Amino acid sequence: MAEEGFKHKLKLFIWHLQTPPLVTVSRVLWIVLSGWGLLLVYLLAAVALVPTVVGIIFLPKMVQIAIFAFDPVSKRLVAGAGNPTVAEKILNVIWAVLFGWEIFLFHMTLAFVQALTIYGLANAARHFEIAKDTLFPYGKEVVEKPLPPRPRP
Q1: Range list of H helices, the chain
Q2: Burial of 86 (0-12, 13-18, 19+ CB in 10 A)
Q3: Which of 24, 54, 115, 125 is surrounded by the fewest CB atoms within 10 Å?
Q4: Distance between CA 58 and CA 70 in Å, rounded?
């Protein structure tokens, strides 16, 4: 019985960590420490894609990733409905060869650097998530993360 009470208290504690006040603090810290820099890097990369004919195809996805990287605390990339189309698979392969591996290494490097600090552990986890999601981004959409329901005793 005491174990049930402890489990509920633990679930309640975890829920409180994910409630709007702490999510807001986490969002502000991410945006101030990482988000704005990532947004600028991605938007500069998007501007560099404009002069190339092939790059224009990848421009909307680069802007979508920029928006996602700016605030991954309240957003996530999810697979779209159904299986990816052949075009999305081809675009994923081209993306991975041209841009994806660089973005992946960029976020992995940032994750390892930020993991050196206590606060950076949370940001490192987000960088791992961004790296994983942006390696093959086609067929995925940015959606808002829902707040978890309050645990019941």
Answers
A1: 2-17, 20-30, 36-49, 53-70, 86-95, 101-114, 120-135
A2: exposed
A3: 54
A4: 18
The HSE-up count of residue 118 (CA atoms within 13 Å, CB side) is 0
Q: Take residue 77 and report the two structure tokens written for it.
A: 């990339």
Residue 90 is predicted with a pLDDT of 92
The conformation of residue 76, written as its DSSP 8-state character, comes to E
Q: What is the pLDDT of residue 148?
A: 61
Token code pair at residue 56: 């224009």
CA angle, 142 as apex, 107 and 21 as ends, to 5°? 80
Q: In this structure, what token pair is assigned to residue 26?
A: 């986490």
Alpha carbon distances (Å) from 93 to 26, 66, 88, 137, 150: 34, 20, 9, 10, 41
